[in-house]
Write a structure and sequence with these properties.
The protein is mainly α. The chain has four helices and no strands.
Length: 116
């Protein structure tokens, strides 16, 4: 199997991290330790868990970390939807991130199928 940096799912996850950092830089300063911090950690967690899982010794371990990455993906989707509801962003601001997260979810599911 290729290194984690060769995985398209990891590359897309890294794109999400950059977009989330850019998006949250515009949030109110009083959110720096709230939503901003949570969203950035969730985004980083997706890419980090894909990388860590790929670096583990067994396919079962990789599958486990892909599950964690998928959970972080769902967490970030929820936080983005919350930001839209409280009017920190409009749908157009988050559409690209949501589309990437949807791609990542499908890719994780596909990878997990191959590992079973």
């Amino acid at each position: 199997m290729a290194g984690y940096q060769d995985l398209v799912v990891w590359q897309k996850a890294m794109d999400v991290v950059v977009l989330v950092y850019e998006l949250t830089a515009k949030f109110p300063k009083d959110e720096i330790f709230g939503l901003v911090s949570q969203m950035r950690r969730a985004a980083v967690s997706i890419a980090s868990n894909i990388a860590e899982g790929q670096g583990r010794r067994t396919q079962n371990e990789f599958n486990h970390f892909l599950g964690i990455a998928n959970g972080s993906k769902a967490e970030l989707e929820t936080q983005l939807q919350l930001c839209e509801r409280i009017k920190y962003v409009v749908r157009e601001d988050i559409e690209l991130v949501l589309n990437l997260l949807d791609d990542i979810g499908r890719m994780i599911y596909g990878l997990q199928g191959k590992l079973r």
